[in-house]
Amino acid sequence: MIRQELDKLELPAEPGVYFWRDAQGTILYIGKATSLRDRVRSYFAPDVIKTRGAHIVDMVFKSTTVTYEVTHTVLEALILEANLIKKYKPYYNTKEKDDKSFNCVVITKEDYPRIILVRQKDIDTRTKTVTLPRLGLFNTTYDAVFGPFPSGPSIREALKIIRHIFPFRDRASAQKDKEAFYRQIALSPDVSNAEATKEYRKNVGRIKLILQGKLQSLIKGLKKEMIAAAKIEKFEEAEVLKQKVFALEHIQDISLIKRDLERTDGEIVFRLEAYDIAHLSGKHMVGVMTVIENATSNKNEYRKFIVRGFDKANDAGALREILVRRLAHTEWTYPSAIVVDGNIIQTNVAREVLAELQLEIPVIAVTKDERHRPKSISGSQEIIEAHKFAILLANNEAHRFALTFHKDRRKKAVK
Q1: Strand ranges, E, within 294-403
Q2: 113 lies in the same domain as 131
Q3: Are strands 337-341 and 363-368 parallel, antiparallel or unpaired?
Q4: Of 53, 74, 94, which marks where a domain is finished?
């Protein structure tokens, strides 16, 4: 297909799903878009082979037309994309990646179901169980599986959006020592009594409808419930339903758009996470994570960790602890690369943790001189060449943030 043919299609600037087809009408590739017009045009960008790969260039060459389906929101486009890929299994969607490594949303079969992200390879469809030791799941029976979703960051953001409307239990919030905290911040449901438990199960059913691509049907159903509650003067219940309807009709896709790896301009969002440890002879040990996206710091996603597993200096052990704790948060967007401060020891620790969790994330190490100035950078040369400034920025931010956090901890300890 050539650009001149694309211009005749008059694609809309709305969210939706697009289909690249060959002369026989066979679907070669399915993708989602925040703007169908801009997204499809990006396939003809001069640097498409660098940003998307040779197999996508080959796909465009073999295609003769593009068809599409408009959706109300980016969230609906994301879910529709997954459902259609599962249905049609287009060749170019999985050519460069084994779909067994894609993420699925799993709803466990428990009294109080958990909703978690699981790699497809960890799901046994014969026994309807999932095994994932790092999440505390051993042959856990599931009620439903949705996906696979090609973009991990996108489905994580989608679950964040859904969770703010219908709070649900996940791995972390199901832990007794964290359950109350997640309820307080309205991300986990109240299941302290029979009525609350009933409402949670109802909300799990509503989440299923969203993941099935039936958002508009869900909204209609909630409106009927709202009217019925008002008629029998259950005004508080009607008000809660009204708020949920409003939230669903005005879903804010901003975070989902921001995280979308398939940017409409063809640019891939490159997220660096840098880690550093700070302590004074092993006392008041802390760790931090800083985030740099496309060479710009995202301070809203910086994180602090109080290291509790050691009573004396152990930078490597502390790094392992905070990496394990951070990567357990599957609801947080995973990085394109991890930056550690140090040498081969820190690099090996990070790689070991990633291997244990079966995650393929490159590790970049920044080594400093005696004045704590960057001396060398090791790791993927391709990443270093393309993102050297961002790597150094991430590392510097982590060092600054760690020192500030450690100083604050020491001050509090003195009081």
Answers
A1: 296-297, 303-306, 337-341, 363-368, 374-378
A2: yes
A3: parallel
A4: 94
